[in-house]
Write a structure and sequence with these properties.
- By secondary structure, the protein is an alpha+beta fold.
- It folds into two domains: 1-35; 39-347, TolB, C-terminal domain (Neuraminidase, 6 Propeller).
- The chain has helices at residues 4-14, 20-34, 43-48, 323-343, and strands at residues 40-41, 50-57, 67-69, 75-79, 84-88, 104-107, 115-121, 124-129, 134-138, 143-146, 155-161, 167-171, 174-178, 185-189, 197-199, 205-210, 213-218, 229-231, 239-246, 254-258, 263-266, 273-278, 286-289, 294-298, 302-308, 312-313.
- A six-stranded antiparallel sheet has the order 1-22-21-20-19-26.
- β3 (67-69) and β4 (75-79) form a beta hairpin.
- α1 (4-14) packs antiparallel against α2.
- The relative contact order is 0.12.
- Mean pLDDT is 82; it is low at 1-36 and 318-350.
Length: 350
């Protein structure tokens, strides 16, 4: 709703026009230009069981670009604009949503590069510095130390980690599996300069954005020239951030944050695309919150939290299975993956 000042300003301008219709149009445009984009779910998103709220309210552009959940449950965010890493508490002093820079409980000194992606792997937090390397983060004092990544070019935006300790990183020379203990790298995908990057719950599959297309790539048996599949449904929307749904009716499908301000869902069995939210200024990276199974979606002016009833997005299911069921779940996941890949073999890009 326009403020009284906006209304008066629009009215004064409107008197200079020749018709009352033109005056009404001018007032509407004036109000719209000063309003901040607020995303909302589409009817399809509501029907599928998604929910959307504000997690972080920015004071500047790209104050937060990506977020990862530290082993102690705090959230480590890349303070891209300020060349810092920021630490938030979740559910302890701060609310789960509507945080801002006043809620930072710790931050690092200004680093030699802009933190872009952040990830947690093997009980440790890592940060990528744009056009630089990967750094291990001491979350107690927010200092960083280089892991000495070798033979992989410089870091871009995407970085993801698995519980087993492996990192997958998008660099200027492609996508690489990285051993953070030694800095050793193995190329898994040839296309470089990627933004969005996500791992399957078991860490065996990477989903990589390249040219607004999402590629499915093997981490354990890499073939850098031939992905397992490619998904073009979000290409016209400017696909950027990506995450995998775990559990529920949409298990294995992908959530994509788009530069046109929408959030989409890709069915990995059929490649069908559905818009589930719209109204952001410019969607960017997507970060899983392992504390509660939601997804933090970066916008030009805020960070939004996307949840899905009965499932987690971008992280392992919040409710862990009983030990006796793990073997059966792993077998089922392997069979499901094999069936899906077989059905899409014609879609894979060589």
């Amino acid at each position: 709703m326009p403020t009284p000042i906006q209304t008066v300003a629009a009215a004064r301008l409107g008197t200079r026009l020749k018709s009352s219709v033109q005056a009404v149009c001018l007032a509407a445009c004036f109000a719209a230009s000063t309003a901040q984009a607020t995303p909302s779910l589409t009817q399809a998103g509501i029907d599928l069981g998604f929910d959307l709220s504000t997690f972080f309210a920015r004071q500047g552009t790209w104050d937060v670009l990506a977020v990862t959940t530290a082993p102690d449950g705090t959230l480590i965010a890349s303070g891209y604009a300020g060349y810092q890493l920021l630490k938030f508490a979740e559910g302890s002093g701060n609310t789960v949503s509507n945080q801002d820079l006043t809620n930072v409980i710790a931050s690092g000194s200004v680093y030699p590069g802009q933190p872009s992606g952040v990830a947690t792997a093997g009980g440790a937090v890592y940060a990528a510095l744009l056009d630089g390397g990967i750094y291990k983060v001491n979350t107690s004092n927010m200092t960083i130390s280089s892991i000495g990544m070798s033979g992989a070019g410089t870091m871009r935006y995407g970085i993801a980690g698995s519980a087993g300790g492996t990192l997958v990183a998008a660099t200027s020379q492609g996508v690489f599996k990285v051993d953070p203990a030694t800095g050793a790298t193995v190329k898994i995908f040839n296309m470089g300069n990627n933004d969005g990057l996500a791992l399957s719950a078991d860490g065996t599959i990477a989903y990589v954005e390249a040219g607004n297309v999402i590629y499915e790539v093997s981490v354990t048996n890499p073939n850098p020239t031939t992905p397992l599949a490619s998904y073009t449904g979000a290409q016209t929307h400017g696909a950027d951030g990506v995450a995998v749904i775990n559990g529920g009716a949409l298990n294995g499908d992908l959530v994509v944050s788009n530069n046109d301000g929408t959030i989409g869902l890709i069915n990995t069995s059929t490649s069908d695309y559905t818009t589930i939210a719209s109204g952001m200024s410019r969607g960017d990276l997507a970060s899983p919150d392992a504390n509660n199974g939601t997804l933090l979606v970066t916008d030009w002016s805020a960070v939004y939290r996307l949840g899905l009833s009965g499932a987690s997005i971008g992280s392992a299911p919040v409710s862990a299975p009983e030990p006796a069921a793990i073997g059966l779940l792993a077998l089922g996941a392997a069979l499901t993956g094999a069936i899906r890949r077989r059905s899409r073999i014609g879609k894979a890009m060589v």
